[in-house]
Amino acid sequence: MRKEAPGNTKRVLLLGGTGDALAIARALPPAHVYSLAGLGRVPGDLACTVRVGGFGGIDGLVRYLRAENIALVVDATHPYAAQMSRHAHDACTLADVPLWAVRRPAWQPQPGDDWRDAAGWREIVDRIAPFHRPLFTLGREALGHLHEIPASQYWTVRCLEAHAGNERAKVIDARGPFHLEGERALFGAAGIDVIVSKNSGGRATEAKLAVARERGLPVVMLTRPSLPDADTMFDDAASARDALLNWLDRIHLSET
Ligand code: NAP
């Protein structure tokens, strides 16, 4: 729903789609904009404006920044949404708009972990070949490969999409956070013998790694994409939100 920005108010564009971004969006007053790709749930209870869908590449984003009087962009997209982060970086440079970014630190292996890197889908298939009951927690990527499942495997795919699965795969439509007990139950019930994961970082989805450690299971970890720098970078949503509230106070004072 569109809310009108008063006069020439300098506005914030928050790029989201993650729990971190939503936590920041909850602190944004009405004149400012929370932007989503449109892949997941669109929150209906925010004070700020919510817009959904792409901008039309870098040029489209530059036009948007100028037309909407955006004075600050905050990139709080998922660590694997590298295209959006690159577009934000390039568009902010072209439009001379400062860019902040929440760059969630990657998970680090702990003693007892057996992590195996994979740079892309082909490497994932190779790494899981010796196993029979993989759990995919990559998002919807695995759904496009359900027809390729070898006869020796049965997949459990957890993602934010309702899907019937097939005779060789069960799709679980579930949104985190996920907790230890629930993960233990899932691993036991589905007989999981390997996990396929993004290295998303953060607390919401890390319990599966602890359960893999407990059970001595390997984790095939999709390599993180490299992301561009930003003018200011934050490790977590809370510090970005606090800095943003300070920035909004300063802007408000300079505009009154
Ligand atoms: P992407 O590949 O970086 O972005 C693809 C295009 O989607 C962008 O170029 C942009 O279109 C549009 N877009 C992305 N985020 C947007 C936003 N916040 N507001 C407006 N438009 C946006 O990212 P992705 O396709 O969203 O996801 C890539 C990976 O990240 C996947 O592996 C996915 O599972 C993971 N991921 C994404 C989200 C999410 O909500 N985006 C959440 C969790 C995980 P234009 O070029 O037209 O502007």
From TrEMBL:
<dbReference type="InterPro" id="IPR003723">
    <property type="entry name" value="Precorrin-6x_reduct"/>
</dbReference>
<dbReference type="GO" id="GO:0016491">
    <property type="term" value="F:oxidoreductase activity"/>
</dbReference>
<keyword id="KW-0560">Oxidoreductase</keyword>
<comment type="pathway">
    <text>Cofactor biosynthesis; adenosylcobalamin biosynthesis.</text>
</comment>
<dbReference type="Pfam" id="PF02571">
    <property type="entry name" value="CbiJ"/>
</dbReference>
<keyword id="KW-0169">Cobalamin biosynthesis</keyword>
<protein>
    <submittedName>
        <fullName>Cobalt-precorrin-6A reductase</fullName>
        <ecNumber>1.3.1.106</ecNumber>
    </submittedName>
</protein>
